[in-house]
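Contributing new records

If you add data, match the layout below exactly. Sequence lines come first and carry their own label; structure lines follow with theirs. Keep one chain per record. Anything else will be rejected by the validation script.
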Amino acid sequence: MNYEFTRRIGRCMMGVAVALAVSAGGFVANAAEDFGPVPPIDVKAKRAELGKRLFFDKRLSGDIAISCATCHDPSKGFSDGLALSKAYPGSDGFRNTPTLINTAHKAAWFHDGRLGTNLNDVTREMLTETYMMNMDMRLMQERLKQDPVYVKMFKAAGMGEPSNGGVRNAIPEYLKTLISRGSPFDKGALSAAATRGFDLFKGKAGCAGCHSGTRFTDDQPHNTGVPDNPEIWSNPLRHITFVTYAMFMGIENYLNIRRDPGAHVRWHKADGSDVGTFMTPTLRELKVTGPYMHNGTLPSLAAVVAFYNQGGGDDPNKDSAIKPLGLTWTEQADLVAFLEALSGDPLTGPEFVWQGKIPANFTAIANWLDVKN
């Protein structure tokens, strides 16, 4: 049996078992054994080094205005610190930018989980989608061939001459290097408050029902009643991005709906019971990756804990396991202390950030929507 399939099924079943125990008012005593440091991944060093330069190169976007690092800033835990993301010039994003740390372990990508574990596919979508980097990969390939540094690096990585296929393999190799390390939790150095918070996390608060495993996620979609962010529809640049996405994903009546369908794009259930479900986010590196939730509506970890303490939000599709927790103010503070203890060493050194200058050799078009042929 395929190892990756077995691993994913096993972790899925673990998450289901814990969720059932929590919803029944208890907790599986040994489930904490599944927590621990995020395991490293074997990396092809020269290919990862190539991927690192590509990650910080604005020439991978259509008008050379943005790179992968524009929205995935190492100093912000490879997120961007914004409630709603930026996007390709002329548009704005309609979801919060998730961290890329530990994503090489993900079972499904994006807040709606619409892409699986093939990082080649994920890289291609991020580069070519019109509201992301809007890159014609044939043009990108020619740009890279004009750079003698890339010619040398592709050859050294055993990938021949620069090619779009090579890019789609090198960037994922770089992502494999972005693994959490050095958190108080992993070092066994929890404060007294964080230790109490961990006990709450596993028990009374029921967080481990969905936040299981080394990344603290079950990689499954759930509806917790997170309210929609009205800016998605009041801001034309965000609304046009949402419309583009919804049309491509086959959402009916996409011009008139005023809520994010979430993982409904995967199943399109006729009764709409999957509308508003979103992938459980990782709890790693939370200290530097706020605001929180798929649409950035909760500004702090204290606000997140308070949200779940009240039983989540108001939604007809809300998961039945989401109920008021009855945590005291002190218990909420302890839980926040534990969540903060899941953040580790910043991945901002030369091992993770390209140090050299990357010449663009092109001038970015500031207002490309106004350009006439």
